[in-house]
Hints:
There is one protein chain. Helix 2 (24-37) runs parallel beside helix 7. By secondary structure, the protein is α+β, with helices and mostly antiparallel strands. The protein has 22 helices and 22 strands.
Amino acid sequence: MGKVIKLDRLLIERIAAGEVVERPASVVKELIENSIDAGADIIKIDISDAGLKKIRVTDNGIGMEQDDAVLALERYTTSKIKNLEDLERITTLGFRGEALASISAVSRMVIITRTKNSDIGTKVTAEAGVIKNVEPIGAPVGTSVTVYDLFFNAPARLKFLKSKMIELSHIVDVVTKYALIFPEISFELIHDGSVLISSPKSENILEKLVHIYGTDIARNMVEVDGSTNGVHLFGYTSKPAITRSTRKGMHIYVNRRFVISDLFYKAILDGYRSMFFKGRYPICVLNIDLDPSDIDVNVHPSKLEVKFKDSDKIFNLISSTVRNALLSTELEPEVRVERVIEETLPKKIEIGESLTPLKDIKKTVEPTSIPQTKSLIQTTLEKTVLGEKEIKALSEKYKLPWTLVGQVARLFIIAFDNENVYIIDQHAAHERILYESFLNEYESGKIKIQNLLEPVLISLSFKEALVLMDNLETLKSLGFDISPFGENSFLIRAVPVIMKKTATTSDLQEFIDELLNLEDVKKKNFPAVHKIISLIACKSAIKDNDILDHETMAKLIKDLHTIPKDPYHCPHGRPTILTIPLKRLWHLFKRT
Ligand code: ADP
Ligand code: MG
């Protein structure tokens, strides 16, 4: 190492830019925040090439005088705070005074702005953090900031960017988040000339939810409203029947700044406890308003994380308000019952009389526990262990290599032969079988297609719709007929036959949801086909907790034996069959 030197200003700015400007979406976020802080009620975001060629944010806010516009480009210049006390009581979205400086350090920037007090506007041109030109220009009141060639002088940053589609989807996400929480502002996002988001001024958040998620979802949102000394939680959250497989639909804000907060997410999920299963997440738009001095927003350069001073109070407020809101709403009894039956009880119930009444089962649906009560397991056992005659008949019919004993705990099938006892995971095994046969159909180009009697309509967020659009061809080759239907909805007209039992709206919505979240699908790592086939197999397979009749079990064992390679693992790599040698049992019982 050599001598210590002081870095020059431009270099410092390039380094700092890395913290604030991670990707095109960070630019969009900072510029939108500036427009909101400037009191705009119309914000238009116009981008080309996922933001890499151009990002222009135009607002009708208060604008800047010429000297302010020039100064604003320097680091640590802000009109929002003056002293330390101000920093503790921040009411604006910006305050660090570094966004414009950081963005201009890694781009070519043009600012055009005018205040209502001047007749003529100002145009400032900068490149790589250096102001090149300042001139008067005719302009409407407000500001437009255009960022060309982002990262043109930071090739390392460029390399870190994901595919254009992913960068674009992050931008869509930022605009979605602000559009939802500022209903009084109209937002429009245009990419390469096509409108991706058009979210006009609205009366309230619910109306914005209609624009962003569609009426179906908006109709299933519950209002959440509650306060404790000085803290107010308000927003909407989905009924338990509407869940997603990721947290992407959970939009959370503090003083209308969108944030990432584990405490917040956990508290919301706590409010839903026992209403849906682990690994599911609601859609929500929830904001906490509190005294700015009760939080620290200055813990993260892009202001995404917040620290609450009294975190217990906040947790309890969120959890209890969400819970009360859910409990006091009609949770559409049909939907609830359907879900309970689907998820805790098998499709083919042959022991109806002895089942625990539905009412009681509802209570036992805890997300983490094994979902059935003791009495249920016992009932199952009695009915599923085979008698000698039946074993014989079945073995002959299916020419089974193993002798079938029965099902335990609604998950495992027990069988044996002269050497081993076999324990089969019914879901994993069936998944494996379906995977093989569907892959076979796919590879030989003979996928059997089931037209749906009634097409199923699914609605997605803009971001998800984009991903789905990109995968329509792949899905077509797998037997799906899906076409765009309105802004962010799709019609499914046909599915592969293998999925015909799970072709209800909720199943298909869930399937598409999970599909769009497969890493390979998101990152466009084609061919993602095998992953999609695994998912199809998983969705179509016998579930944990399904009671199986003996025919089904026998057929399953039979089919497992026809799999050419490795029947011992499911497509995800989990075991399907556990083999316990009889010798081992003798040994364990000290008989040797
Ligand atoms: P910060 O938002 O933290 O103050 P920025 O670098 O984002 O820092 O902006 C610097 C200053 O430029 C702001 O404080 C504001 O006075 C002015 N400014 C930036 N964007 C706009 C805009 N769209 N309309 C009006 N003034 C703006
Ligand atoms: Mg700012």
